[in-house]
């Protein structure tokens, strides 16, 4: 069920048998019916309307529809970990249901982006469903799933009961083009999960954890004899604030460039990706000054 809003506002959607708003959508004027959608996942503070609404101009430029699931605190408290919600659906299955409802059929692969807790969800979704994601953009995630099957999910790949029926296969999810973005000043600990074990294995700040995760995935790609498809951007003078990222960090331009780079790679293969490497080719620990 869709609640249509006038003009360029977001449309709110409910799922059959599920109370409340399930997701928001936006389709630019003249957008092709078969255009690949951009899915954006909100952060821990669940500002879905404000954050998704800020992406409408980006979707206008890309000519793609926007789908933004709403993981309410009452229904999906642990959506970041793909946890099962009060509605009985795991968070990844909830997104699938939203996409199927939006498209009217089994949804095709899509672009996936998320901020903070949404970036946690997004990278774990891509690991569990690599064939569904054409490009992942993870912005300022609090912590990550490491590519190690000796560590239990969500910190590692050993799923057990956490993702019953799924085996997280590095050879598959390492093929997903990924862009990791973090603000260079994102060194605070508010709303950041901390523990001695997590701090030791991933770092104490979002910057350290982003750098370490990128390094882990690049090492894993070498171990599986694959080209690394993960890019890293550390944006100067930006902390952990979505709207500061928009205003000072050129977040929409960075997402747009990442997705256009992915399209170029699909058209031209590895050579096309390599030819655009300077845009997203910083090594873990280096600083990109694109947002200055």
What features would you highlight for this structure?
292 residues, alpha/beta, Rossmann fold, 9 strands, globular
Could you write a compact summary of the structure shown?
With 292 residues, this protein is of the alpha/beta class.
Structural notes for this entry:
The protein is α/β, with parallel strands linked by helices and 292 residues long. It has one domain (2-280): Rossmann fold, CATH 3.40.50. The chain has helices at residues 48-53, 56-62, 91-103, 117-128, 170-173, 196-202, 206-223, 242-248, 251-275, 277-280; strands spanning 2-3, 11-13, 23-26, 38-41, 66-69, 110-115, 133-139, 178-183, 230-235. Strands 1-2-3-5-4-6-7-8-9 form a 9-stranded mixed β-sheet, with helices on both faces. Residues 269-292 have low confidence and may be disordered.
């Amino acid at each position: 069920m869709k609640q249509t809003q006038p003009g360029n506002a977001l449309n709110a959607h409910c799922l059959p048998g599920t109370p409340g708003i399930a997701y928001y959508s936006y389709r630019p004027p003249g957008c092709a019916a078969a255009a690949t959608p951009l899915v954006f996942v909100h952060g821990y503070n669940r500002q879905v309307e404000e954050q998704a609404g800020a992406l409408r101009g980006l979707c206008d430029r890309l000519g793609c529809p926007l789908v933004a699931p709403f993981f309410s605190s009452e229904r999906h408290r642990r959506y970041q970990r793909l946890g099962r919600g009060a509605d009985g659906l795991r968070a990844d299955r909830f997104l699938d249901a939203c996409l199927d409802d939006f498209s009217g059929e089994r949804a095709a692969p899509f672009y996936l982006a998320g901020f903070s807790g949404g970036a946690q969800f997004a990278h774990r979704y891509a690991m569990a469903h690599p064939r569904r994601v054409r490009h992942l953009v993870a912005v300022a995630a609090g912590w990550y799933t490491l590519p190690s099957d000796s560590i239990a999910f969500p910190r590692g790949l050993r799923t057990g009961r956490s993702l019953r029926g799924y085996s997280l296969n590095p050879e598959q999810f390492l093929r997903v083009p990924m862009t990791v973005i973090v603000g260079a000043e994102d060194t605070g600990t508010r709303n950041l999960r901390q523990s001695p074990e997590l701090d030791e294995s991933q770092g104490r700040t979002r910057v350290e954890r982003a750098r370490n995760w990128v390094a882990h995935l690049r090492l894993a790609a070498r171990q599986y004899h694959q080209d690394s498809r993960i890019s890293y951007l550390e944006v100067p003078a930006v902390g952990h604030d979505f709207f500061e990222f928009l205003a000072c960090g050129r977040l929409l331009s960075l997402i747009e460039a990442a997705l256009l780079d992915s399209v170029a790679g699909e058209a031209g293969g590895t050579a096309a990706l390599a030819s655009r490497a300077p845009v997203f080719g910083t090594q873990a620990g280096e600083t990109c000054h694109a947002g200055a």
